[in-house]
Amino acid sequence: MQQAQNELGDFLRSNRARIEPADVGLPPGGGARRVKGLRREEVAVLAGVSADYYARLEQGRERNPSPQVIEAVGRAMRLTPDARTHLFRLAGLHPALTSAADRDLVHPSLLHLLDAFPAAAAYVLSPAFDVLAKNAVAAALLAPFEGTPNMVRVLFRHPRAREVFVEWPTVARATVHALRLHAGRFPDDPDIDDLVSELSETSGEFRKLWQDNQVENMARAFKVFVLPEIGRVELTYQTFDVHDAPGQQLLVGVPEPGSASAAAIESLRTPAERGAASA
User: Does residue 213 contact residue 11 with C-beta atoms inside 8 Å?
Assistant: First the structure.
């Protein structure tokens, strides 16, 4: 992926454009505004820095901002905690994590843990959202995408993506925002670079979401799967970081107890699994 020359400035401009003066307690001002969102001068006032300093920061001419300035700018823009962390990394103030050389290897104990969720869909993702391991339920839900192990490519390239993920816009948006967060955390990861380059060229929908410059961790998510063989399955996901393999994440999706989704998940379990659960 071609790295932007001024990622910090791009991020600041994108977020500045999303904020209206009224959102931060400023008067709307008279006449038509030449820019969407806040002006640079307004961000500078809110952050307590000079307009010239903020302009240099956004233009990439200020290379060594202090943590205090970046924190003030983040507060001025009402950034979320994830977005603030991303802002600090772009400013070079948080050391970027280095993905491990064996980041695609899943520890045997984690593989064993996947099978400890027989009534849930559990799988392990790489920083670039490759499915590294999955339990039987996850394998059944992802069966339509066999041969495409990367979930971002599934969403934007696979012909059945919108059929299976019936709430595709929500899932796609959350996935791209999380991928951008990972790109900031792991700037050395070639898989992320290649993925972003490929999809930016081949998918206008991906390109538009990527250029939004929004970041958000997928700590919790709600996903709906629809498969002819199984029916509609609604799952609430919780995401866990794998601390001994930076960048890997364990996702566990569970249905509402007693729901039709729970019955559908139960139907995917083997007789041996059902017997073990009732023992």
Answer: yes
